[in-house]
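Please predict the structure of the following assembly.
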Amino acid sequence: MPCVGDWLNSPLSIVQGIFAQNVPNSDWEKKVTEYFKEKLKENNATNWVPSLNDVPVHYLKPNSLVKFRCMVQDMFDPEFYMGVYETVDPNTNARVLHFGKYRDVAECGPQQEIDLNSSQTVTSERQTFYCVPVPGESAWVKEISFLAEPAYISASQARVSPSTSYTPSRHKRSYEEDEDMDLHPSKQKEQHMGKGCCSGGDIHGCVEPKRLETEASAGHHVISPNCSPPLDLNFPLPGEKGPACLVKVYENWESFKVNDVLEVFGVLSVDPVLSIVNSEERDSSTLDPMECMDTAEEQRVHSPPASLVPRIHVILAQKLQHINPLLPACLSEEESKTCEFVSNFMSELSPVRAELLGFLTHALLGDSLAAEYLILHLISTVYARRDVLPLGKFTVNLSGCPRNGAFTEHLYRLIQQLVPASYHLRMSIESMNHSRFIPHKDYTANRLVSGLLQLASNTSLVIDETQLEQGQLDTAGVHNVTALGNLITWQKVDYDFNYHRMEFPCNINVLITSEGRSLLPSDCQVHLQPQIIPPNMEEYMSSLLTAVLPSVLNKFRIYLSLLRLLDYSISDEVTKAVEEDFVEMRKNNPESVTADDLHKMLLVARFLSLSAGQTTLSRERWLRAKQLEALRKARLQQQQSVNGNEL
Amino acid sequence: MSSPASTPSRRRGKRGRGSNPPTPQDARSPPSQKRRTDDSTSTGDLQPMPTSPPADVQSPGAADALFSSPPQFRHSTIPLDFDISSPLTYGTPSSRVEGTPRSGVRGTPVRQRPDLGSVRKARQVDLQSDGLAEDIVATEQSLGQRLVIWGTDVNVASCKEKFQRFLQRFIDPLDKEDEDIGLDLNEPRYMQRLQEINMVGEPFLNVNCDHLRSFDENLYRQLICYPQEVIPTFDMAANEIFFDRYPDSILEHQIQVRPYNALKTRNMRNLNPEDIDQLITISGMVIRSSQLIPEMQEAFFRCQVCAFTTRVEIDRGRIAEPSVCKNCNTTHSMALIHNRSMFSDKQMIKLQESPEDMPAGQTPHTVALFAHNDLVDKVQPGDRVNVTGIYRAVPIRVNPRVSSVNSVYKTHIDVIHYRKTDSKRLHCVDEETEQKRFTEERVEMLKELSKKADIYERLALALAPSIYEHEDIKKGILLQLFGGSRKDFTHTGRGNFRAEINILLCGDPGTSKSQLLQYVYNLVPRGQYTSGKGSSAVGLTAYVMKDPETRQLVLQTGALVLSDNGICCIDEFDKMNESTRSVLHEVMEQQTLSIAKAGIICQLNARTSILAAANPIESQWNPKKTTIENIQLPHTLLSRFDLIFLMLDPRDEAYDRRLARHLVSLYYQSEEKMEEEYMDMAVLRDYIAYARSYVNPRLGEEASQALIEAYVDMRKIGSGKGMVSAYPRQLESLIRLAEAHAKVRFSEKVETIDVEEAKRLHREALKQSATDPRTGIVDISILTTGMSATARKRKEELAQALRKLIQAKGKTPSLKYQQLLDDLRAQSDTAITKEMFEEALRALADEDFLTVTGKTVRLL
């Protein structure tokens, strides 16, 4: 058990130390980031940092180092703050320099006053992002990343000596949590999901951490009665829970974009002083015209109570390629560790693929072709954009699904077990007319109000069309359907900024389940041919899931996330062969083979090769891709002849 | 000078200011402090709150007895009365008491400038005797030159003199601005402006900072860095000149100088702490404006015991209520008298970054603006404006109860000048695009590009590189992007000539038409993308709706109006319903849109190019039919397209092979490689924008000849076979295309090569779309009348044959319909359909030869 250093519990004192050593010159900032980078590089050090995703805010020590895995939902205006300031003791006239970085408030000792006129004051700039947990994050991602923390294990060991004094340290928290889980293992998951929401109640935040601590342990869902109308935390998906966070970024903020998934390491700030300062300002704003720059709503959104929306002052931030905790966070080729991991996994790739195929075949009621296509769909990703054309999207329309909702519902549950983030969109006249799909800007509160389609990259969106009834779409409904269509065809969402629209590119895997052909566009339509009709869908599906060993399930997860990230190329030789093939096909039947078909075949070939772990296209794969396409088309034609009016 | 609090706060020019209690110098410094290289302490004086109301002028009745010192204003040169010329005293009541014989400067009340904040707090520092900042009233002439306003390097006297020189001498005959109507460009521009002020009576002088920069670099720098000090000096200079020239002029208040177009910052995103307290210009869009806020400038207190009155100026947003009456020494007896306090107008405005300035994938930034006095309510939400103002960071207020303070500064801009970007567009037709600024290197680079011999091919290739081949179509679209030159024939009664090129793409589904449209829509700054299926006539034109806030009827513009000066991409053109399509007739030729709805009757400009895509009525293109028959669009509409291209799936082995290779490479090439091969989209965009705004080619002599020949040739082709193969509309198309091609070359003159290319492209397009499938001859009448000449001929022949047949039957008053058809069929050697027969009957009926009633045909 490595020693939990000061840098974890009170990172600011480390910063203070570095600051004091290097004060006259400004490179202390660089040294701070370097220090923490070093520290986090150490063996498993990142796992020692408590994560805001797993631990409720009030269990975390203020001003300690935390990490947070999140999606940038909105970007606020940059703010200017005092980077360096000076305090003066009115009695002794002693002057001390302080740093304002990584802090919300400029602090000073009891005998000190801040000298705002000091020539030493340095004004700096930082940017605030409004971050929410990754929308649609699967339960298993949360679970595994939580269990992966060695802190969790060590805490369970620490159970032998339960301390009496209840300090809000995270060790204590882990213990509590741990015990809780031991007692009610079934509750475990539920609790993970529910953790964030309890913070919604305690408006007082850490004013009285001790009291809250006991209160919280008594029951996690105590809502204090004097709570103001709940603040909309602006999660893209309905029913989401978790901490939203104001992430203050100090460098390179230009490189982050809306909807990026980040992992940030930073200083947690839930300073109650902050709330006081803010509310002071709010109170006085009625008196002072100077302060009425922002409306009340804007105030509420931009400086919510710190207990509800904590602040993180970022020391290190990185964009995540994926959120699968089973994979190393950064899959760069330089690191030997990741190389090893990848090559190890690659060696056992084909049995995993076979097993996954079998699993999905069962899930798709014995249809192996559909299962094959589903694998291809699940590893697809937009890998490039050629002017406006997104390359690598592979929207599959699974037609011929049984009309009762049970099948699609359970299929989604299975997919949810496999992918790190997903959302199930049940299309119905009502949901189309009444949901908010496109994020729009609320100018009164000056924020981007999220919508269903504000999703992180590589989120699986499963659209269920089987429940669509006859009815009339209203204007909002038409807009929503158009937005879905745009998302599928161009992989972009036009956010509504009232006076204009802005295009945000996205990378979302869309799977449409429908009875006939979907009303939404798709890249390829696979008609389901069930081999078995289980009498009880629910039983069948859940038995399917329990039959899979957790370790195998984890392999599936790794498989899908890893293959998506592989590179791919086509050799000249194969290019020639493909050319020949295409010309040949066109010769025989120019009507049926168009450039579009070639597009599709190349896509299928790409994902087919990748699914077998091959990064170049081989002739066999190409033939296999052709074969798959032919099978799929034959099935469609067959379907068409059975059901004359449908295509 | 490291501790400003200890520096004495003596101000110069105290005459007449004795009544005001000295403002305490405990000002907290705005954050820009460290940036001020000249001096690190002074900015404590730069209060964001205005504190200088010369109340006595506006309310002379309340004139303070203390303001008794006689005006010592000598209208003489600067050094002698340095005191007066300093901005510190400038505007204080003592120097201009009402009724001074010489009206001029003194007669016109000074209007305080809340936008600049308090100037009077500025102190002057003698550079020589650093530290002895107090009372430099020793205004010796020799010292005068070395006096600067504390914290700056601004010497008031020389600054003023320089600015006066600028006003009197600045001439820039080349610079033309849209506001310059009626200005003689060879005369000093700003003197004419002053004259205008004298006539119009609007006491604001707008000064283009760009002019100032070209005139005096140093003065410009001072203005940018120390606007708070320099602008009052400018005010003073301008007023002196003005009242010197027009001593009898009566203005509402003294002239205020409003600089604009400071080049400091263009983009909101670039604002950083270094810009604080500097003059900046940013562009953006107004998203919200507040109610008018009356802001107290000066509070009026009266003692309730002895009725002694006193005034207290606002200091950093606070009024310090006097706790003790100075007259009777009663404590807490002073009460605020609202009616006699002074207020000024203020408005808070939120400005958002304009969408063009935003990097992809980020949300727009906003910034708060404070508008004062006249500038209140000058802009509405939705307006695009260029704002010039001073960037401020509000000092932190200390909370007495908490020792720690919030370390975040609040920032805003005090507006000095607005310039609406869209209202300008209404004024001038010539300015095609927003005056997009190009750096010199960029222009150089673009010009270099334009000199390449194969620039046309290169650009065409750069257009939608992911779409394979279709080179001529890409070339056509390229020319559309550039557009022709706008010609004005209003004086000869023909109105504007259309400069925009309209293109229709039709062809098989799945030939990436939509993709091409999407590309164009993404490329041009003012593009609109609609689908014919979903759009209604109102969606394209304009509709009237009730504004939820004001409850007034407002006109909401549709896609065509929004794409004025841009390109409107309409997908699934054929799926558009009839009424919607009819709207396009006007737009596509007259380039206007007439609206008569809900009492709003107007004509809007819709100078938009239309790029439309249509699918054939049968899902596959039928090569045996004409274009019209395939897409079922009225010919009246089709003839308004300059170019109609067919995007067909060629059935050709070599093509297939190339296509396959192209697609395969698409699927594995890395992104960097793609970019190497083709021109960057940004370069293309800039190239087009530059050409559109700066190149305006005219027809050369040779080119005109070539065009005439081309037209005559086109007419000749058909004349031999008794059909018309070209109409004036085609000639106009040719001219537009030739002009656009000249624009591609950045050439100011249309030359023969341009005409050649226009001819070629036009021919190519015609070959595709106007070939009569029956004869294989290009026939323009397919597009202009909807029917090929041969088809028409055949129709006539049939009618004649029918007539002969009937006449041969002798004098029968009526005939059986079916019988007649059978007879005709028997007689004819070609197959005759029922439709053809009916048409022939109709033709004869039109000739009053017969009438058809039910199943019988009667002769007349």
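The two ends of chain A are 63 Å apart (CA to CA). The CA atoms of residues 435 and 452 of chain A lie 8 Å apart.
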